[in-house]
Structure formats: C-alpha cells, structure tokens
Amino acid sequence: MGNLKDQFFLNPEYKHLNHGSFGACPKPIFEDYQNWQLALERDPVDFFVNKGNVQLQKSKEALGKYINCDADNLVYTMNPTWAINIVAKSLDLKPGDEILATNAEYGALDRTWKYYCDKAGAKYVQQEIPLPLSSKEEFIAAFWKGYSKNTKAIFISQITSMTATIFPVKEICERAKDLGLLTIVDGAHVPGHIPLDLQELKADVYTGACHKWMLTPKGCSFLYITPEFQNDFDPVLISWGFDADVPGKSKFLDYHQLQGTRDYSAFLTVPKAIEFLNENNWEEVSKQAKQLILDNYKDLCDLFGTEPICPVTSEFLGQICSVPVNISSESELKNTLFQKYKIEIPVFRLRDMVFMRLSAQAYVSQEDVDYLKDAIREIKETTDIIR
Fold first, then answer.
1. Which among 57, 116, 192, 240 is least surrounded, fewest beta carbons within 10 Å?
2. Beta sheet of 182-187, edge-to-edge order
3. Domains of the chain
C-alpha cells in the first residue's frame, strides 16, 4: 500500500490514523471535484438548469450500480446526519411509540432521534450491547431484548463509529421484517469499506457516506428508501421540488433532490471515485488494510492491559478498530500523541469505557502502527497518563 501514499494530500509530517472520522480524498478524485466546481462557475445557469442535472443522474446511476440499487431510489445528501433527519422528522411518531437502537450508535444521530422522539412523546430505546461480544448470535439476542409491542422501527449501524465493529444487520433486518417493523440502517462507514448490496440487505431505509471509505470529497452521502416508503418522508427543506411545476420521475426525487442553489460538485465525483478504486485494485488494498487491523488489534490492547471488545475476525472487524484503554484522561492521551508524536488518532469515551480508534487505509503501513506502539510504550514509561 505504500506507493499509494503519494496519491493523498495528507501532511507527511503526521501519522494519519483517523481516516474513519472524515476520510481523505485522493488527488485524482479531488481534481475531478475541482473540475466540476470550475464547470459550474464558468456557466452557472446552464449547469444548474441542464448539465448539472444530467451529470447528477449519471453519478447516481454509477452509485446505484456500485451498491446494487435503482438510481431513482436514492438521493444525495451532505452527510448521513442530514439523511436521518429526513427520516426521523417524518415518521409520524405517536406518544408511547418506540424506536429500537443500540447503545453504540453515532452521537449526532442519537441526538436526532432523541429530539424527535421527545417532541412526539415517543421513546428512543438504546438497547445495551454487552462488551466484549463473543458471537453474532449473542449480539442478535441482546438487541432484541429491547423490542416491545410499542416498537415502531429499528435503527442500527452496520459499522459503528464508536466501537468500530460490524453488526449483523442483515439478520436484524430479516427479523424486523417478520415483525412488521420499519428498518433504518446507518451505513456511514460501509461504502468502499465492506461489500454493500442493498437488494440483498433489504433495509427499508439506508444511508451511507461516500466521503469516508469511498474517498470522495467531503459532503457526499446518500439516502436510499424503498419505493414502498418514499412518499412518507418530507424533505428537511421545502424548495422548488414541492408541488413542482414540471414534476420529475417521482415526488421522492422532486422533494429531496431539488434544494436550490447549492454546490453539489462533490456528488458528481462518485463515478471518478469508483474508477479510482477499480484502477487501484481496491479490493486488494482493502484486504491488506483489514489484515493490518487483525494483526495489530490484540497487541494494542495488550499495551493498555485490556482485551478486544469482539472476536478478532473479519466477521466483526474491517479497516477500523476501537482499542479499550485504561487512562487518566482521554484528552491528555490524544493531545500527547498529536502534539509530541504527531499522530492523529481519536481517543474518546463511550459511557464507562474509553477507546483509542485505529483506522487503516491505503496510506497507513505496519511501520506507522509500530510507531504508534512505540509512542504508547514511551508514554507508559515516562508519564502517568496510562494506568
């Protein structure tokens, strides 16, 4: 993977071990992004009225093929948080209704659900998932303990941001369907990371980020909704697509795709991103990055005197892992790693646990991880940050 480091703009003075937070865009894709921005500025009227819409459809068709869904069943959004706000605000929740999630969901989306549930007198159920996990079956059993006769929908991450584990979403969706529940999946970390086939998964609602592991510029995500439910969701913004003078293919597309004057150049880079992944044999690149996680997860836990929070296998781990740490201050460890050792890596608290999350991408090598390990050893020897 070393030869791909030059494809990224990342500051070479730092070890960038935090791809999971905001991604990193390779130079050829970023150049494509700038070309679209320039095309917009050269002829803004024709771009917004004609050319841009044609290219947007081509981009959606490329994405639809990549994740196996009809392009007209998805719209682009700036991020998954925007997408879930579309869903949560339109669910017509009633007092006593429940949304079943886990206690490992992304914080911004926890806040989204709590806001709309509180407003409706409904309940956001954050079912506890025991850590460490021993098996997929244990997860499934724990999750469904949160189900009740009041459960209206399930909301679950396919790969969590906080615990960095892969959840058995397909099995959860299958059971939810049997129970007549709406299935809403947060796949922010999935596209370009692990295989995604929306026809096989059969979630009713799915959102994913293209600007993370698919490597597009920032602000490029999507919302997929099956045709059965598309008319149930209002847009966050009411704009020209509402009661459109010239209706498009569907109300879903009119409502959510036409949002006034916004620079959607990032959306148009998806075909280039897919081309970049294919040209660079990304399946193999990703395989090597995943192996880097499997090879180092246990060693990193040992340095902190902790244990992995899941089986160290590809069933639970992709290109990212969260290492439990015993430390006096999460901010002190993060700042020390960044300021003294020039390592960019997140350290954060999730309820009563603190994690250091390692991301492996094409620009991360075993030497980079070894450098992190050496830094941790030195911190242990010279400070009292690590207990």
1. 240
2. 74-77, 221-225, 205-209, 182-187, 151-157, 98-102, 123-127
3. 30-276 (3.40.640.10), 281-382 (3.90.1150.10)
